[in-house]
Amino acid sequence: MPLMPEPIVKQDGTAKNDGERQAATRFLGKLRQDHPHLQCLVTADSLRAHAPHIEPLHAQGLHSILGVKAGEQGSLFQHVQVAEHRGGVTSYERHDHDAGRVPRVRLVHDMPLNESNAEGRVNGIEDWAIGADSVQPLSWVTDLRVSQRNVYHLMRGGRARWKMENATFKTLTHQGYHFEPHDGHGLDNLSVVLAVGMLLAFLVDQTQQRCCALCRAVWAKMGSKRLVWERRRALF
Questions:
Q1: What is the pTM (predicted TM-score) of this model?
Q2: Quick one: which of 44, 88, 100, 124 is 20 to 30 A from 23 by CA?
Q3: pLDDT of 15-25, one tens digit each?
């Protein structure tokens, strides 16, 4: 895999930091250059559900599941309502006993992404996660063909972005790492150096958890990953 997604820094001949969209486009190009045959599925929030972000994905042969919101992709939701009146929307319900909720899903195919990009067609998924005390509506668009056979897996793929958000970013902020979002790179790029060092440490830990029999045995004996780290930290 590529060593690291690059930090968003000033490019040659410019006076301000580059944007996320341009940096992401460069990263996709490097990813495809290093792995020309690797199949990837990209997830992102509603800020990325626009043609300037989707077109580089298609150009690199990458698939995507992108979150959408009625307040940001209003024309898309209007087209979905029209399709529903015409009978072009399929409803599907499946009980998820493990998660303790009932996902109620709607599928729609071949919708224009927005008014300014009518030729950009997407398939839509709407999910109402009905729990014991709440109903959480979520929506995504994807370039993949959606059917009752695969919609549950695609929906879980879209929801995986929240897993990344909670397990990575919030962990770094609130679970003792004291690594919060930062708009700059610090003196002599210190923030970037610390971020790379932390990610390399996580890589070593994840490799041990997956491949080291001793690490897995200690984890099983302790009963929780948190207790393993507390005991290890006490030793240091």
A1: 0.74
A2: 124
A3: 776 777 888 88
